[in-house]
Amino acid sequence: MKIGEIKELLNAELLCGEEYLDHDVFAACCSDMMSDVLAFVKDQGVLLTGLLNSQVIRTANMMDMVCIVIVRNKVPTEEMIELASDTGLVLMRSPLRAYEASGVLYYAGLGRREEDG
Amino acid sequence: MAENIRFHFDVDGENFTSAGEASVAVKKKLRQLGFPPDVIRKVSIAMYEGEINMVIHADGGTADVEVTDDEIVIILADHGPGIPNVEMAMQEGFSTARDNIRALGFGAGMGLPNMKKYTDEMNIDTEVGVGTTITMKVYL
Hints:
heterodimer; A: 5-stranded mixed sheet; B: globular
């Protein structure tokens, strides 16, 4: 799925990284606990979170993720936007709640296991 | 490689916002040096967790990274409270972090287990009231 499609599906506002909207991603994870993201995530390109601090951007960077979606229209700090921009990450915010946003992306096929149809 | 490459960082214990900057810098340098992505990821995640730990628990410290012909060595040293029970601290989910740290997305008790998981060797040298030095190696 293209990052641009994620933006459309989640009705999201792009905060930085417009040049990467054409990039493909294959899976996503949703968590407010960065320790868990660092522990369990593997090759997942998108992070959905309601957590707002600079460690969200660094965690995504460490995990080679390419896109962060802030849920519930929370407003990230200027520092987060700047860090994301410097790191080459797409940062967007969506009015959807974490559960809804995850569901929309999963239903649209992002990271969906084949056996789930 | 003719000479080992070394990086040294002081980790500021006062500032949670800047925690992880050393790991980001190391990741960038390893990328420039052309290391494979999986090696870079292992080193940077292990170091990042360690850096966060130093900020949360030990009021900062130092981080040293040495790249040799066959391994990358990360040494994280602090003068924090030390770890009273290393075996317990190594269990997934065990954490002494306060709630304010959890609110920041850390303190799930995954830091040390993650550091072990992502490295080939890890040694914890700790003394209560004196400090902790963690040495990790990722083989090349």
